[in-house]
Amino acid sequence: MMIDQEAKKHLRESLEKGVRYDGRKKDEFRTIEIKTGFITTAEGSAHVKCGDTEVIAGVKMSVEKPFPDTPDQGILMVGAELLPLSNPKYESGPPDATSIEVARLIDRGIRESKTLDNQRLCIKAGEKVWTINVDICPLNDDGNLIDVGSMAAVAAILNARFPFFDGVKVDYKKKTDEKIPICRVPVAVTVVKIGNAFIVDPTELEAQALDARLTITTIDDGRLCSLQKGGDETLTIEEIDSMLDLALQKGEEIRKLIKQQ
Fold this sequence. Notes:
The protein is of the alpha+beta class. The chain has 5 helices and 12 strands. 27% of the residues lie in helices and 33% in strands.
């Protein structure tokens, strides 16, 4: 159900007073819980719960032929499947615009962080490289799916172990102790503008009232990896600066939680 204008007005007025419907501060995430390694058939997995939003991510690895323009580099692919079981607004069938956007934003944040050493995923240049497929699926979507999905994807990659490969065939029943070569932890934080207020970790209701949003992915040293704007309204340079500061602060807090796994 879409938010009506009266509810939207009330939400805006509450935020002007620094009050959110669930009692959080404007710069406060819901409680985050991260568990890894619970899907035995995947090379790596993670379950992330942020308030009532729950997402699982799994990593599958395979040996493939590299892309012609990067013959000595492995491949990363991120996909998201948004099912009606997580939120009635989704429909079964081919990926829609929302699932494509979620997957691309998460993929870009990881890819542009340069955190993955793709050359170490090369087995034989021009012939064989490791492909890392990250599948993201929400169990319940109550807002902020991009950030929670990103946490799950990164945690699953960190949890992953290579399957045994004898040079010809991959044995998925045997896992090695070798981890995916990842040197940094990219974290996506989406800052939402509603009226004159900036908030993080919007619920489904808050997301329906947004004027603009900015998804910001950062790495350990505070450098920016990617930016993606959403929503209909424009943002000033001053507003973008404020959103960046908030994303950097929250990103460091989330990064610590991921590293504890």
